Amino acid sequence: MRIVYLMNVRFPTEKAHGYQIAKMCEAFIELGHEVILVAPNRRNPITQDAKTYYGLRREIPTVRLPVIDWIGSWLPDRLAFPIMEATFVLSAKRWMKKQSNEKTLVVTRDQFLAPRINHPNWTMAFEGHDMAPDFLARHPELGQVDMVIMTNAWKKEEAKRVWGESRKAKIISAPNAIDVSVFAGLPSIGEAKQRLGWDGSKKTIVYVGHFYAWKGVFVLADSAKHLKEGYEIVMIGGTKEDFAKMQDYLAKNASTQVRLINHVPHTEVPNYLAAADCLVIPNSGTSFQSQYTTSPIKIWEYLAARRPVVASDLPSLRELLTDQEVRFVTPDEPRMLAEAMMEACTGDQARVEAGFAAASANDWKSRANRILFESPHHG
To answer: How do residues 53-91 score in pLDDT, each as one tens digit?
Structure first.
C-alpha cells in the first residue's frame, strides 16, 4: 500500500513527535509498504538526516514543500505560525493534485489540513495526540474525515461523544509504542554510571524529557528535599528556555540533590536510562493534557531499559499499565514521590520484568498493522 505521512513539523526535530513520526514511517516501510513523508522546507538547526538523527534502520523518502517560515524571526510566532500553516496547506494541496489515483493512506496530525483532503482512492486519517479540553468541540469537521487515530481510549470515546451521530470517521485507539531492539545489550547500572562519569556510590533517579510544568518537573525538583543522603535526581532535556527556568528554580530552592543535563540526541538516551537506579514520570494531575490526552513514548522506553519506574497515578497512564509493571504514586505530592522513588531504587525486580514484557508486546510494527487493518479501505 502507498502511505503518505503529511506532517507540518520541522523534521527531524528534537521533540518527541518527530521520533514518533520517524518510527511509524520505518515500521510501515519494514512491513513492505511504500512510504513518503511530506514536510515543510523549514530552517532547521539539526543538520543530520532523519536516519542518522533517530538511529533508524531505513531511510525515509521525504518531500520538502515550500512554506513561508518566519518562526523565530522578527515576527511574533503567534503571527508567523498561521502564515506557515496557510502556505503549507496550499503547497500540500498543490502537491497532491499531481499525485496518481493509486490507493493511498494519508496520515496527518494537522487538524486544518485533514478535512481539506478529499479523494475517492485515498483514506484520510487524522492522528490525534495532545489536545486542549475544547479541541474536539472546536474541530467537529474532523469527524467527517475517513479515519481518526487517537492515542488512547479516552480520546476515542470522547470524540464519539462530542461529535455524535454526525460523524462519519472510523475512530480507533492506537497508543504510542516502542522499539525494544534499541535497548538490547544495555550495560549494568554500575557500568553505565562509570561510562558516563557518574558517582557510582549514589542512587540515581533519572528523568528524560521536556521541562514543561505539566510534566511535573517542578514537583520532581521539590521531591529532592525529601530524599535521604546518597540519592540524587538527574533531569535530562528541556529547551534552552525551559532549561534556564529550571536552573533558576533550583538555585532559588537550594536543591543540591538535583543535577541538570542538556538535551541529548535520541540515540544516546538508552545510555542514560541504563545508568538509572530508578526512572520517573512525575506528570502533574493539575493538567488536562497530563490527566487524559498524553500517551508518552517515554514510559515504554523506561520499561524497555529494564529499570524500575515510578509514575504519577493518572488516567492517561493507568490506561496503559498497572501496578504490576509500574510503581504508581499520587501526583503533585513531592514527599510521596520521593518515598516511592527511594523504594523503587531497591530493585522492584518483579515490576521490571513485567514492564519489559509489556513493552515488548507494544512495538511500532504492531501499531502500524493495527492502523492498516482498521482502515476503512482495508482490503
So the answer is: 999 999 999 999 999 999 988 899 999 999 999 999 999
> Residues near 103 by Cβ (< 8 Å), separated by ≥ 6?
1, 2, 121, 122, 377
CA distances from 179 to 56, 94, 108, 185 (A): 10, 35, 22, 14
Q: Say how far apart CA 94 and CA 136 lie, in whole Å.
A: 28
pTM (2 decimals)? 0.92
User: Going by C-beta distance under 8 Å and a sequence separation of 6 or more, which residues neighbour residue 159?
Assistant: 128, 136, 142, 143, 148, 150, 167, 171
**Of 91, 81, 171, 84, the residue nearest 126 (C-alpha):** 171
- Go through the domains of the chain in sequence order and give each one's CATH number: 2-177+363-374 (3.40.50.2000), 180-360 (3.40.50.2000)
What span, in angstroms and rounded, lies between the C-alpha atoms of 106 and 360? 28
Q: Which residues is 63 bridged to in the sheet?
A: 38
